């Protein structure tokens, strides 16, 4: 056993009264990098809206409290006396491997600020654990009968599946005084991890993750804490088909029910659900807001005085001023210049800036005052005050920028003007999922390319597409009139294959073909690459339709009249030169066929668009000497400008480039993760007299509404 002091002592004032809980404390870690494997805190008033403390940095050093240098899966508990707090965490650095840890960390505090800690190595501490491979996800519960704190966790020995064990902590919470005893194992003899026990109506509900036929979260119930658990049912309680782990439950302070949350660890998201009976769970993600991305954590109710104490210690003025709730603000695009203390709030089109309330979210002991609600003439002086800490003033501006064109994280945009409805429609990749692991496609509509309406999900992998469950990427669409009726043919990527779905409306519902249209690289292509990024094009000269696709190569072929099959004999290699990476887009203007493509990697700030010209939709193409369409603009903080489409205003020689870029302003700081945290932009595209394209300047301002 190793003992270490977590932090130097800080002077705090404690509240001895047991006042009613008025908020919540969320303990979590953030990722699989060593710097992310540390305990972080966030607070909330309502259990739905959370704000990271300490600028989302650790509240205690993993190096000081652990044997591996990293901790994961923190669980926090208020003690039976109401004023002592206990945390336990997995002592582990994932880079060493998933079977590399044998220990857990125990922490104790009387103020939530200063923590003492110790390491318990199960293999060294208790004989008979020579075959132990890992110790995961400990949690603590008070056993009133024994007046002891019981720590429960999963252990894996040799080839045996993970099982949940328990042991009792000593009075100082610095060690386990009893050897681990098996608490529960999966009836299917499958791995059983991430236990979380909640008490309701005198019964103990054990939520756990099982690695059985379809891994997920199940519930076992007992009348006793340490024995007798039986399955509530064979049903999984998570409300997603994505992989999940780290179930955490907490009771809402208003008595309206319980929250079950879990880590969608392959999706880069957390899902929150609400229940009153632990049997039926409704998703409440639409009500949740966080300025951080948690991994496997837990939530504990806290008092007003505890929130004030936490805020005084770890809430920064910058965190307060950027915490705004007004729905008109594009929250992922907020920019804070910390040097000049200037905050820029990008707002949606049509926002009334003469009477604008940013909706600053505050906590007990924190206030924000604004000199005026009129933001139409420039910056407004706003002051943040934190009780016991002081105050800080900022200049706050509200600006109507039209880029990103659609609020949120989206990429690979395709766009059309639908004759049937007289509106523009955007079809992007739904972005923001770790490793491009999205599972659904959405559409957006607009009368003017500026004001966009979210039309919702139009195609869901696994549900609407039987042959694929993940990697929903890079769609494209075409409108055609068939026997006097409009039809919409939607081509999309899933699991590195290209599918097609059909609808009578641009917003669906779409019916999938039932199998991939293209499932492998054509034989005529001799270079490597993925079968992704389709683009559909109708030649206005002949009426024939073509499909282009490829990553690492540019392939193309004529479509049959049914639009859901290829004339395979026409498949051709169009790869222009070494700058081609992916994202082919073809359009026609004044007798010229333009072939566009993206260069470099979508994770690279240099990701950009180039083009070639041809007199035929099947090539060959001529590449202009200066063929750059759009590229990064460092002075404006715009990077990764690529994978585009174009749109012509009907009846006019007026063109616009639709593309994605890194999220602004955070993308450039994300490293490779910027490649799946992208947003869609629109800027004007113009031509030289000889038909060549003038290089487009990417902007934040975007375009004005078109008519």
UniProtKB/TrEMBL annotation:
Residue numbers annotated as active site: 412, 582
InterPro entries registered for this protein in UniProt: Glyco_hydro_43 (IPR006710), Glycosyl_Hydrlase_43_Enz (IPR052176)
Pfam families noted in UniProt: Glyco_hydro_43
Keyword Transmembrane helix assigned: no
Keywords from the UniProt entry: Carbohydrate metabolism, Glycosidase, Hydrolase, Polysaccharide degradation, Xylan degradation
Molecular function in Gene Ontology: hydrolase activity, hydrolyzing O-glycosyl compounds
Annotated positions for site Important for catalytic activity, responsible for pKa modulation of the active site Glu and correct orientation of both the proton donor and substrate: 533
GO biological process: xylan catabolic process
Transmembrane segments: none
Keyword Hydrolase: yes
PANTHER family documented for this protein: ENDO-1,4-BETA-XYLANASE, PUTATIVE (AFU_ORTHOLOGUE AFUA_2G04480)-RELATED
UniProt name for this protein: Family 43 glycosylhydrolase
Organism: Pinibacter aurantiacus
């Amino acid at each position: 056993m190793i003992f270490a002091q977590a932090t130097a002592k800080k002077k705090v004032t404690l509240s001895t009264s047991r006042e009613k809980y008025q908020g919540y404390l969320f303990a979590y870690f953030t990722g699989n990098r060593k710097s992310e494997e540390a305990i972080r805190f966030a607070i909330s008033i309502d259990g739905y809206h959370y704000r990271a403390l300490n600028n989302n940095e650790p509240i205690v050093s993993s190096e000081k409290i652990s044997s591996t240098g990293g901790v994961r899966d923190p669980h926090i508990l208020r003690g039976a006396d109401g004023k002592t707090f206990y945390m336990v965490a997995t002592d582990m650095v994932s880079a060493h491997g998933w079977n590399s840890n044998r220990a857990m960390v125990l922490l104790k505090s009387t103020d939530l600020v200063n923590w003492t800690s110790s390491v318990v190595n199960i293999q060294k501490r208790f004989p008979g654990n020579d075959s132990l491979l890992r110790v995961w996800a400990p949690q603590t519960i008070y056993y009133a009968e024994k007046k002891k704190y019981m720590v429960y966790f999963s252990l894996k020995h040799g080839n045996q599946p993970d099982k949940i064990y328990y042991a009792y902590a000593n009075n100082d919470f610095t060690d386990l005084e009893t050897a681990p005893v098996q608490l529960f194992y999966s009836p299917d003899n499958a791995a059983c991890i991430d236990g979380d026990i909640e008490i309701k109506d005198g019964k103990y509900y054990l939520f756990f993750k099982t690695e059985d036929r379809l891994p997920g979260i199940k519930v076992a119930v007992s009348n006793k804490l340490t024995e007798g658990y039986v399955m509530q049912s064979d049903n999984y309680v998570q409300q997603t088909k994505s992989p999940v782990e780290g179930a955490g439950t907490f009771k809402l302070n208003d008595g309206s029910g319980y929250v079950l949350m879990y880590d969608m660890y392959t999706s880069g998201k957390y899902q929150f659900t609400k229940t009153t009976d632990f049997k039926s769970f409704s998703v409440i993600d639409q009500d949740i807001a966080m300025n951080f991305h948690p991994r496997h954590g837990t939530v504990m109710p806290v008092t007003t005085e505890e929130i004030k104490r936490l805020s005084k210690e770890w809430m920064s003025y910058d965190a307060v001023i950027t915490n705004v709730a007004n729905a008109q603000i594009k929250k992922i695009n907020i920019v804070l210049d910390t040097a000049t203390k200037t905050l820029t709030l990008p707002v949606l089109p049509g926002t009334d800036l003469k009477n604008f309330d940013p909706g600053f979210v505050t906590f007990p002991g924190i206030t924000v005052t604004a000199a005026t609600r009129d933001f139409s003439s420039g910056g407004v002086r706003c002051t943040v005050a934190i009780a016991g800490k002081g105050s800080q003033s900022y200049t706050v501006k509200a600006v109507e920028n039209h880029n990103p064109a659609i609020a949120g994280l989206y990429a690979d945009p395709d766009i059309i003007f639908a004759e049937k409805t007289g509106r523009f429609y955007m079809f992007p990749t739904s972005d923001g999922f770790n490793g491009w692991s999205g599972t659904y496609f959405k559409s957006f509509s607009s009368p003017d390319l500026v004001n966009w309406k979210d039309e919702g999900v139009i195609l869901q992998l696994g549900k609407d597409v039987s042959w694929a469950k993940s990697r929903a990427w890079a769609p494209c669409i075409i409108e055609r009139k068939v026997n006097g009726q409009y039809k919409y043919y939607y081509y999309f990527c899933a699991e590195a294959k290209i599918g097609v779905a059909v609808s009578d409306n641009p917003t669906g519902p779409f019916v999938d073909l039932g199998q991939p249209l293209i499932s492998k690289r054509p034989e005529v292509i001799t270079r490597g690459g993925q079968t992704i990024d389709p683009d559909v094009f109708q030649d206005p000269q002949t009426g024939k339709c073509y499909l282009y696709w490829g990553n690492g190569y540019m392939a193309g072929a004529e479509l049959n009249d049914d639009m859901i099959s290829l004339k395979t004999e026409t498949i051709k290699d169009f790869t222009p030169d070494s700058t081609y990476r992916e994202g082919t887009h073809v359009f026609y203007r004044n007798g010229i066929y333009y072939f566009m493509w993206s260069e470099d990697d979508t994770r690279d700030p240099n990701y950009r668009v180039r083009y070639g010209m041809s007199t035929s939709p099947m090539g060959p193409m001529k590449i202009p000497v200066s063929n750059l369409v759009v590229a990064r603009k460092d002075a404006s903080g715009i990077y990764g400008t690529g994978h585009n489409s174009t749109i012509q205003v009907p009846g006019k020689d007026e063109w616009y480039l639709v593309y994605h870029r890194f999220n602004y302003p955070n993308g450039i700081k994300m490293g490779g993760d910027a490649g799946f945290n992208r947003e869609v932009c629109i800027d004007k595209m113009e031509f030289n007299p000889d038909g060549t394209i003038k290089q487009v300047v990417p902007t934040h301002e975007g375009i004005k509404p078109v008519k």
